[in-house]
Structure formats: C-alpha cells, structure tokens
Design goal:
Chain lengths: 306, 275
C-alpha cells in the first residue's frame, strides 16, 4: 500500500489516467457489505445506547429517564459484583492462559520438536468447538461422580473433591478454568508464530554472552513477543469480559449469583420478567465501553515502544 | 542450541501432559456417549458398548434433525453471502484508491472489537416489528453484518499481497474492474476465500446468544440452541444422551477442522493480529 504522504500526490498526478487513479467504482464494491454492517450491527449498537436512557418494559410506551439507569447501575451491588466476576474471569482467560502459552513456547522453541503440528492442532482445538458443547463436556467433567472428582479420589485426594460449578466458593474459579482450557492453545499458537520471526542472531549473541535458557527467554524471546503478547491479552480479555454462552450453559449465574457476569445480567434483565429493557441496555453500553477501553489501552501499549 | 537428552524427554512429557489435559474432558464426554443410561457411569469409564443407540435416541428425542437443518441453513447462507461481499470489499480496499478509504476501513474494523452481545436487545425488538423473530432471517442478516468485518479485513490483506502489476496491466488493457476481478483475481483468491469460509462457518455454526434470543417462541432452532434446551431437560435423567447430543453438535466443525486445520489456525491468528 502507498504511504500516506504519496497518496494525495499520486491522486493529483494520475487523475484521469487508469492505473492507481481514485476510483468511484470502489464505493459500489463496498456498499452491499457496508449496508449489512450498518443496518444489522452499528445501527443496533446505537439503538442500545439510546434505549439505555429510557425506562421500558418492551411493551408499553417508553419513558425518557436520562441517566437514571446508569445512576442505578453504579449503586447496584449485583451489577458491581457481575463486573467483578468478569474481572476474575480475565485472570483465567487471559493471565493464566498467557503464562501457560509462554511456558509452552519456551519449551517448543529450544529444539525442533517432533510432532509439533500434532501438538499445535490439538492444543488449539478448543477454539473451534461450540461453547455450548464445551459447557456440556465440563458440566460432566465437574459432576459429583464425574471424571475430575473420580480422578482426585483415585489419587487419594478425595478431600479435594467438590461439586465445583455448584459450589459457592469454587463455581467462578471452575468456570474460569474452562476459559483457560479454551484460550491457552490460542495464546501458544500466537506466540509460536511470533517466536519464528525473532532474529536468530539475537539468540547467538545471548549464547555468546553465556545466557542460560531462562535468561535467554527473558532477554530475547519475551521482548520479541511484545506485539503478540498485546494481541493475546486483548483477545482473551475481551473474550472473558463478554462471556455469555459458557455461563448460561454451565451455572446460569449461580449458585446464588456467584457467577453472574455483565452479559448474563443484560440478558436476564431484558428477557426475563419484569423486562427492564432500558436497564439491560445500560448494562450492555457499560460493557461495550469497558471493552473498547481495554482494546484502546492495550492497543496504545503495543505502539508505545516502537 | 544444545539440549540434553533429559531436557528433550522432559519437554515431550510436559507437552503430552498438556495434550492430555485438552483431550481428557473431550474424550470423557465421547466415552460417556457410548454408555447407556443404566450403566451408572462414573468418572472416565471406558465405553461399554460401541453401538450408536444413545446417539440415535438423543437425535430423536432432542429433535436434532430440526436443529442441524437450521444450523446448516443459517451457517451456509451466512458463509456464502459474507464471503461474496467480503471479496468485493477486500478488492476495493486492497487495490483501489478513493476518498474516505481509511475512515471506511476503520469503520469496518470497529466491528471486530465491540461486543455483538450489545446489539441483541434492539435486534430483538426491530425484528419483532417486522415479524421476523423466530425466523432464520433474524439470525442470517445480523451474522452477515458481523462476518463482513472479519471478511473485509481478511480479503483486503489478501488483495494487498497480489502483485500490483496484474491490476495495472488489466486496467491498461481496458478491462472493467469487475472483469478483472472475475477472470483474474477471483481464481487467485480462492485459498484466502476458503480460509474465510471455514472461519465464518465455524463462528456461525457455534453461535448461541442470537439464536437464544431471536428464535424465542418458535419451532425453528439451531444445533447449539437445541443442545442447550435438550441438556437442561435431559441431563438429570440421562447424561449419556446429553453427551451423545454434544458430540453430534460438535462433529461438523471438528471434521472441518481436521481437514483444514492450517486454514483455521492461520485465519484465527490473522483475525487477531489486526495491527
């Protein structure tokens, strides 16, 4: 692509000539996709923001209430707890996954590992499976007589057997661990791709300096993966913050609201009685703002050191 | 680098451990599906029967012919239409200059970041106004809107890699932009399109929230939605059938993944690393 400086010049010089000239026909090519995108994605997003300023039960006329929904939102213990739960999920979906991904990358880049394609294919696979299916697998996995508890009993740790997703203390962590299971392979694949682009001479230089495997990882691999780290953090954090399918299909927010998250609270308020549509829209707007802020801050971070 | 034998063995052991950690939950539900209700399954028992009895029962009781058909209708339409539209936008953004190009492209990229969960409330009421709640249109139209953002990003990246000389030669020959796309660039773009189709098909097949909200009160359903309802109603009575149904719902995408794993991984990574 031409750089921003030479584009206007090219336009001036080439107007009226075929190659490289500005082309109005481009709008025709973009129009159909743009129409779908505007009509069914951006426009509804705007409607959500607008709805958040109304009190509405979905049937009777709406009543404009200004920022009342937001004022209520900030004082609502349940909503605050929901955002708090989402933050804890970030630890599992993002922080833990990135640590595991880095660890595996460090292992896999020391020598040519046989069967790398196989390992990569399997570890990435959870990304491709429908969350509803993943949820069913783990509901069984965590069941009182399920594989996890039976495994713990088999190795003599029956004291650690729980009902997991039905347990007041463990439910959120158990759901979070499913998130780690889903995302760590993605992080690993991202980091492996990035590690291949690191200049080999940096490793030689580190070795000449007598760096061990750990020093080498900290001094060469980790800084070289800066952008991949930001991408992984952004992607997994967003996945954690918006998670709905997993919660709905494992715990439905329970026990006693311990795993309620913003998107679940949005759904619940909008589509369960008494249908607080405006309030649900305010939750959705807050969630969108939170996610945009995360994307923006992490995006800045990746550009900062360049 | 020099690595000792012990080092290598440790690496393979650790890798196998992680591989097992990923496969174990999946295999245990597959194994559960090959049991029958009165087997009193606990933990990871090996299959007692290699008959597909449980699968057939789950298929019939959960009405999965309906859900699978619905998912095929939705996923295939969304995939074909959004791949076609993204071919066009990618062509424009990747090979042409025009006013407002950067702004328009960034507008599309916005759709990759913000949570579509936030659009589902108004979509429900909008579709209710035009009597489309409960129809597959209510799933197809919004998912085309979401998929063209990824598609535009992906196909633009492809068109940026095609040699400019092809485009310029075509224009000097006086070929219309559409003829150039159809007879020269489209054949070249097939691998990129295939990757895009695999991704969009996967995301659409696996989608849950839109189906949950927009198919309310209708007999129409999708495979994941059907599974969710079936699990809620059946799990306590017979977890083996829920396991069988889960395997059925996951199978189409897993088969596609086994054959196209490179495309899947490359596509998800590229979608992630959007500058």
């Amino acid at each position: 692509m031409s750089s921003p400086e030479d584009r206007p010049r090219a336009r001036r010089k080439l107007s009226g000539r075929a190659p490289g000239a500005p082309r109005r026909v481009a709008y025709l090519y973009i129009l159909p996709a743009l129409a779908f995108y505007l009509l069914f994605t951006l426009f509804p997003l705007g409607q959500t923001v607008k709805l958040s300023l109304y009190a509405w039960d979905g049937v009777s006329p709406r009543e404009y209430v200004g920022f009342a929904n937001y004022r209520e939102l900030f004082g609502d213990e349940r909503i605050r707890a929901g955002f708090g739960h989402a933050l804890q999920l970030v630890l599992f979906f993002s922080v833990l996954s990135i640590v595991l991904g880095l660890f595996l990358t460090a292992l896999l880049t020391r020598f040519p590992v046989r069967g790398l394609t196989f390992f990569r294919t399997v570890l990435f696979m959870p990304q491709t499976i429908a969350t509803v299916v993943v949820a069913q697998a783990f509901v069984w996995w965590y069941a009182p007589e399920g594989p996890l508890n039976e495994f713990l009993r088999a190795i003599g740790l029956s004291g650690y057997a729980h009902t997991w997703i039905g347990d007041f203390d463990w439910a959120l962590r158990a759901v979070g661990a499913i998130g780690t299971w889903v995302t760590f392979g993605l992080c690993m694949v991202l980091f492996l791709a990035g590690a291949q682009r690191i200049d080999g001479s940096l490793y030689e230089a580190a070795r000449v300096d007598g760096a061990g495997a750990v020093r080498e990882f900290l001094a060469v691999t980790l800084p070289g993966l800066r952008n991949e780290l930001v991408v992984a953090a952004t992607l997994t954090t967003i996945t954690a913050l918006r998670s709905f399918d997993l919660i709905y299909n494992t715990t439905s927010g329970g026990p006693a609201g311990e795993t309620e998250v913003p998107s679940w609270l949005m759904f619940y308020n909008a589509f369960d009685l008494p249908h607080r549509v405006g309030y649900a829209a305010a939750i959705a707007t807050m969630l969108t703002l939170t996610i945009s802020a995360v994307a923006l801050v992490l995006g800045r971070l990746s550009r900062a050191g360049e | 680098m020099m690595t000792s034998r012990l080092d290598r063995i440790t690496t393979y052991v650790v890798l196998s451990g992680f591989t097992l950690a990923v496969l174990y939950p999946l295999l245990s539900i597959v194994s559960l599906a090959f049991h029958q209700k009165n087997d009193r399954v606990t933990g990871f028992s090996l299959p007692t029967t290699f008959s597909f009895h449980t699968f057939v029962a789950a298929w019939n009781e959960g009405n999965f012919s309906n859900g699978m058909l619905g998912s095929v209708i939705v996923a295939v339409s969304v995939t074909i239409v959004s791949a076609g539209l993204s071919l066009l936008t990618g062509y424009a953004f990747g090979t042409m200059h025009f006013r407002g190009k950067t702004i328009l492209f960034n507008l599309f990229m916005l759709g990759l970041v913000f949570p579509y969960e936030a659009t589902v409330i108004p979509l429900y009421y909008d579709f209710q106004n035009v009597d489309l709640v409960g129809s597959y249109w209510a799933l197809i139209l919004p998912q085309i809107g979401q998929s063209v953002t990824l598609g535009t990003f992906w196909m633009r990246a492809f068109f940026l890699t095609t040699p400019r000389s092809i485009v310029e030669a075509g224009r000097i020959d006086g070929a219309s932009s559409f003829r150039l796309l159809r007879s020269v660039l489209f054949p070249l773009s097939k691998p990129a399109l295939l990757t895009l189709c695999a991704l969009v098909f996967m995301y659409t097949w696996n989608e849950f929230l839109l189906a949950l909200v927009l198919l309310q009160g209708s007999d129409n359903t999708t495979a994941p939605l059907g599974l969710s309802y079936f699990a809620g109603a059946t799990r306590a009575g017979d977890p083996t059938k829920v396991a069988a149904a889960s395997v059925l719902v996951a199978t189409p995408v897993i088969i596609a993944y086994v054959f196209l794993q490179r495309q899947f991984i490359r596509g998800v990574l590229a979608g992630a690393v959007k500058e």
